[in-house]
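Researcher: Can you fold this with pyridoxal-5'-phosphate in place?
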Amino acid sequence: MDDRRRLWLQQLPKIDELMLVLEGQGVADRAPRPLLKELCRAAVERRRRAILAGDGPGEERPPSPTGIVDEIAGQIDRLTTRRLRRVVNATGVILHTNLGRAPLSAAARECLLDVACGYSNLEFDLERGARGLRYDHVRELLCLLTGAEDALVVNNNAAAVLLALNSLAEGGEAVVSRGELIEIGGEFRIPEVMEKGGVRLREVGTTNRTRLQDYREAVNPETRLLMKVHTSNYKIVGFTEETSLRDLVALGRERGLPVLDDLGSGCLIDLDRYGRQREPTVEEVVAAGTDVVTFSGDKLLGGPQAGIILGKRAPLERIRKNPLNRALRIDKLTLAALEGTLIAYLNPRQARAELRVLKALTETPGEAQARGKRLLRKLRAAGINGIDFSLREGVAAAGGGSLPGQEIPTFLVSVTPRTLSASRLEERLRALPVPIVARIDGEEVLLDMRTVAEEEFVFIVAGLRSVILPDA
Ligand SMILES: *Cc1c(COP(=O)(O)O)cnc(C)c1O
């Protein structure tokens, strides 16, 4: 080892010395001492190793306490900055699973805030002054909106399916079409959920065709349930045949078996009225006589993450009493937001105006275009140099396992930077305090107006201005 490096090793700052500087700079007030000491120790150790490693990519200069202290202050900054935060979804994917799926309505937010920080009547019946059920806050609304006899809510739809299967068919068989053995992404695959629920899967039919006769022949003394799964994230096209829900319900009646329909998305309004493709509404599925229906709270419903289970009284009672229900139960914040969301549905026009998912799905391309024009005016008025803006037509998607294959006409604000590449701009937009997640097409960054709300314009205008300034 040469003298220079020996000297550098001797000059490595002591932990106590670093701690004094951190205290002087106020960093010590922002983190526990043991953590700061550990960070100091690790930082000094990294420098020691770099010096010992010799002239590779190691140290070029003697280690300075200031450098180490700055590094640690940076680490504490990062730890005390919230990682989970709002972003602007400019991707055009309305139910973007990675971006938190459905945004809540203002009314749902009010409900949530109202119960969040105080006590609430979560499980207290204010009329009787006695214990109540958390499900009662949304049961009546759900029954009214769907025609179901009874309803229950849990953590998410995966939990709803697991709980329903386990409650109704544990130890026995459930019959499902081969064309419906779906994977939703992540770890949710129907055959695996079934196994975890203690239910044996009896596959019937083929990928593209399953007839009533296939279900009928599969029924045996071990059968506990007939199950239908909405193929919510793909389509089987061509030579296909699907057994109708009504036929399956009739078979269930004949054999004394309950029918479970995992709808996945669960739509409460007629989307075909707004030019979207036909999705069976929950009301129709209930009216077909389905015993149990499950769907998500944060897909087409446009509310918080939740699993909604509704249908006939007797199977719902079995589901409610299952001890597994306690493990999957919904929390009070979700419940509050869900109630606020469901109240909006009592007036469908209000639901379309308040719930962003419904608004984005049902508004005309003209409305997206008008919003795009307003954003364009604001961007041009902001005097941002080095970027060309224009408006053009494009295609948005429902996403989140809803309306597969459906192309939704939209308008895109095209952002073409002159001084940096589109991918560099897209990267900078993602690094903003309110990140903007956009698409890239060649040398353009595209902001899809279907998923951008008027109140988010401020983030886009300020964001684009700040990402361009450094190079201007
Ligand atoms: C999305 C989906 C699920 C899972 O619902 P989560 O709310 O994400 O847990 C289950 N089944 C179907 C058919 C779905 O589309």
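Model: Folded with pyridoxal-5'-phosphate in place. The CA atoms of residues 183 and 189 lie 4 Å apart.
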